[in-house]
Write a structure and sequence with these properties.
With 195 residues, the chain is an alpha+beta fold. The chain has 4 helices and 9 strands, in the order αβββααββββαββ.
Length: 195
């Protein structure tokens, strides 16, 4: 099965190194909005290239090349298995860690699909009401308190005004799954209109 055992050991070392480097310490987007993603690793964001992501992909490709050179047969299957392990392995390990051993902010997960914010401006007044339902889950056995700011998008101008009120202090109780309601009234300048 092996054509070159040292090449196989080098490939395993390189692929494991790439997996360790891609291990998500926070289960979110640490680099901001991604424009180019290769095998789940961001290589380019709105702020420019992510050299760390490019390094991870380069190490992985080098490991796959060594893997192909090391094997006599079943090369395609083994490469596919290595890629699947690289893509799903670190995320599943991180989720397992978060659900069992993590404490503090690492034990908090955020459900992006369920969470929503609505905003409403009343009859040409300069007051806008923002109502957000944010779904966090605390996987630890203790309450977790953290400061929350909203990601500012160029299309959602109201978020900038929400962040001007200062970061929100949030506490998620142990094993809590329910929504946290954020409701604020923002005073806007007269020339600002929202639809």
């Amino acid at each position: 099965m092996f054509k070159n055992k040292p090449a196989f050991y080098i490939s395993v070392l390189l692929i494991l190194t790439a997996m360790i480097m891609s291990f998500p310490l926070r289960l979110g987007a640490p680099y901001g909005p991604e424009l180019t993603v290769v095998l789940g690793i961001p290589t380019r964001t709105v702020e420019g290239p992510v050299y760390y992501g490019m390094l991870i992909i380069s190490i992985l490709i080098l490991g796959l090349v060594f893997l192909v050179r090391a094997l006599k047969k079943y090369r395609g299957r083994t490469v596919l298995l290595a890629i699947l392990l690289f893509v799903f392995g670190p995320l599943k390990i991180a989720e397992g860690y978060q659900n069992t051993f993590a404490t503090g902010l690492d034990a908090i997960s955020y459900d992006k699909e369920k969470s929503e914010c609505t905003y409403e401006s009343m009859d040409r007044t300069s007051v806008m009401t923002v109502h957000c339902e944010l779904y966090f889950q605390n996987h630890s056995e203790e309450d977790v308190t953290f400061m929350l700011t909203f990601y500012e998008d160029e299309y959602a101008i109201w978020i900038h005004h929400l962040n001007n009120e200062g970061p929100l202090e949030m506490t998620v109780s142990e094993q809590d799954r329910g929504p946290i309601i954020v409701k604020r009234e923002l005073k806007l300048e007269k020339e600002q209109h929202f639809s």
